Structure of Ubiquitin 3 binding protein But2 C-terminal domain-containing protein:
Amino acid sequence: MQLHQCLHALGMALPLFTPAALGELVPWPVTGLETWQPSGRPGSNPDWYIHANITNPDPTQSEQDPSIAEGNVYCQIVWLYPDVPYNQISECEIVDTTSPTPWAWTVELLEADDADPYPTTNFDLRWRAASTVSNSTEEEVRIWTGIGQFEVAKNLQGTCAASGFCTFWLKAESTPVPVDVTSISCRGTVDEALHGLNCD
Ligand SMILES: *[C@@H]1O[C@H](CO)[C@@H](O)[C@H](O)[C@H]1NC(C)=O
Ligand SMILES: *[C@@H]1O[C@H](CO)[C@@H](O)[C@H](O)[C@H]1NC(C)=O
């Protein structure tokens, strides 16, 4: 059944890609993404996962100010069948950053808005980033957010092994996948803002 769904996804038609309106912020580059659907065989690891990396993303970076900090935002979404964690928000790890500003990032798995959503072959990811420098004189928290769409036949390729597992990753010609960024303001704490609470 799972393998069938997987193969079905592989043969899926290509829907039209409609990027969000471009602001003046530089898109975040998704440089690495890997999904895993386990074989379900006894004794094998039952975890499903999505791992995604955005490299060198300064959320405030604009076309006018192309200064860039190095670093990697490493997000891992892990679950057990059948509890697909749609709309659950998890924290990402910040690796090897040279940014002078401390950033916190979250990622949220979204169900693809079409006929064939599937959490490892046709899904969206919403990232949120905020500076963790707190400012008690301000009630407004500014966050940066963007949604990437990931889909077999568009920007993912992969394979299902005879033993039953399926794995998908970014097509070389689609890498990096640009994610359009918008800036929004929220009321409350940075942590609340990173969970999308009280935002405009
Ligand atoms: C993401 O980055 C981490 C940390 O640098 C690395 O271990 C991992 O292999 C990367 N994964 C992908 C899918 O690019
Ligand atoms: C805190 O907020 C004040 C008033 O908006 C601003 O002038 C100041 O630069 C902020 N400080 C930090 C560290 O963001």
